[in-house]
Amino acid sequence: MAYDVIVIGSGPGGYVCAIKAAQLGLKTAVVEKRSTFGGTCLNIGCIPSKALLHASQMYDEAGKELVQMGIGEGKPKLDFKKMMAHKDATVKANVDGVAYLFKKNKVDTYTGFGQVLGGGKVSVTNDEGETQELEAKNVVIATGSQVAGIPGLDVEIDEKTIVSSTGALELEKVPETMIVVGAGVIGLEMGSVWARLGTKVTVVEFLDKVLGPMDGEVSEQFQRMLDKQGMDINLSSKVTAVERTEKGAKVTFEPEKGGDSQSIEADIVLVATGRKPYTEDQGMAKAGIVFDKANRIEVDYHFRTSIPNVYAIGDAVRGPMLAHKAEDEGMAVAEILAGQAGHVNYGVIPNVVYTHPEVASVGKTEEDLKKEGVEYVVGKFPFTANGRARAMLATDGFVKFLADKKTDRVLGVHIIGAEAGDMIHEACVLMEFGGSSEDLGRTCHAHPTLSEAVREAALATFAKPIHM
Ligand code: FAD
Ligand code: NAI
């Protein structure tokens, strides 16, 4: 059977691409080597981590904010096994959901390792080593990413004591102590989960700030909040060794600028120093696919690789390694293959860290604008001055708008606070339409909502906020 499209990989990039292609009338198949669909995101990434982040946050609030509101008297008992079962059930519901959507949209599925052979051919090899060949007019590679490890070090990640995010989602009990290498998004999200459940978490980070690419002011305030939550954060520190010990594992690090090294020991070490595209050992180079220096598949503006009719999307190509970026690319490629004008606006891709409070941003940071020499104005509004935030005991954080000084066009929005990850989309829509801070400042917002703080920050950019 010849397909219009074969997609290799069923993560957010691949499964969304396949469903969209089928919706547009293309005969579509997906090849996935895992026994369930959904890729990193649904199986070992976004979904299980958010299930644990939500559950652990509720547990944390039950002992604190809820008591302040008159609910309960102290920390409730933790049923750890049940919390992990909630995570597993959430994953199952989501991966089953993708299988259902494939059936509903008549997407054919093949379980096995897919390889692009060129000339519209794809081989699929199952666990028994049996290979079959499929044919398609177009192939979309969506093979995603994998754990990168610590640059320059050969650390053995056993997923029991020295773990990546995958092992950190599967721990058998709450550890007493954990060292997190890397204060990026995985380190701080997973570190938060275990800290809330009672683990003493120590973070070691190479850079002089947490969440490296985030707006500096946001990152600074966020670090203070993490300090208050009891995380011990060591910045400007380069990890030089991670070794197993009798008790657990030992991390050795030294000041990034040079100096004496020190070692600390913990039950668990989480290595969260980045991910790399999953493009090695895939036979792609043999087929003629060209890679960039970071081993990402080279694609042009229309996601075309160096082989005719072979496209690539998601974590395997340039751009942020985010599920929604992969999804948007998947939809765009399907539209292109159906003869439509598929397109992704890389200037408006939100970035959310699902800690407490959440950190969300879209567009340029203040540091970006300074570097680019763009003249800008800043509008800020704190959640301490928002009525709903007070009612929720969620007054930590602020909203920050950055707008062009001459035109008032919004260039970036940064939010640190409860539900920041949902509120950021107001800014995304505004920026997608090239809106100004005045456009948002003059839009009626329901009272009392956290979103009023977004409007007030917009007001602060071109006029004055009311409640401050
Ligand atoms: P993937 O999801 O990695 O999917 C690739 C799929 O291809 C896999 O199923 C793999 O088995 C399959 N595959 C690979 N090679 C082959 C082959 N040769 N044949 C057949 N199948 C193959 N992003 C967010 O936006 N929000 C979050 O909250 C978030 N949380 C995360 C939490 C963690 C712990 C991690 C690790 C990541 C998180 N991410 C998050 C990132 C997100 O998971 C990725 O950006 C996203 O999954 C990328 O989608 P993708 O389709 O490109 O690849
Ligand atoms: P990251 O790139 O966000 O952070 C890695 C951190 O490790 C960096 O701050 C880096 O400076 C530090 N580091 C590197 N080497 C070091 C060393 N030797 N010593 C000390 N520190 C060192 O990578 P992370 O957190 O592993 O996440 C990988 C990807 O997964 C990200 O690109 C992210 O986009 C995606 N992801 C997204 C989530 C979300 O959107 N909420 C959640 C989880 C992951």
From TrEMBL:
Sequence ranges assigned to domain FAD/NAD(P)-binding in this UniProt record: 3-330
GO molecular function terms listed in the Swiss-Prot or TrEMBL record: dihydrolipoyl dehydrogenase (NADH) activity; flavin adenine dinucleotide binding
Oxidoreductase found in the keyword field: yes
Binding site for NAD(+): 182-189, 205, 274
PROSITE patterns according to UniProt: PYRIDINE_REDOX_1
Annotated active site: 447 (proton acceptor)
Pfam families associated with the record: Pyr_redox_2, Pyr_redox_dim
Binding sites annotated in the UniProt record for FAD: 50, 114, 143-145, 315, 321-324
Reaction(s) catalysed by this chain's protein: N(6)-[(R)-dihydrolipoyl]-L-lysyl-[protein] + NAD(+) = N(6)-[(R)-lipoyl]-L-lysyl-[protein] + NADH + H(+)
GO CC entries: cytoplasm
InterPro entries per UniProt: Class-I_Pyr_Nuc-Dis_Oxidored, FAD/NAD-bd_sf, FAD/NAD-binding_dom, FAD/NAD-linked_Rdtase_dimer_sf, Lipoamide_DH, Pyr_nuc-diS_OxRdtase, Pyr_nucl-diS_OxRdtase_dimer, Pyr_OxRdtase_I_AS
Cofactor: FAD
Keywords: Disulfide bond, FAD, Flavoprotein, NAD, Nucleotide-binding, Oxidoreductase, Redox-active center
Cofactor annotation remark: Binds 1 FAD per subunit.
Cysteine pairs bridged by disulfides in the record: 41-46
Protein name per the record: Dihydrolipoyl dehydrogenase
Organism encoding this protein: Pararhizobium mangrovi
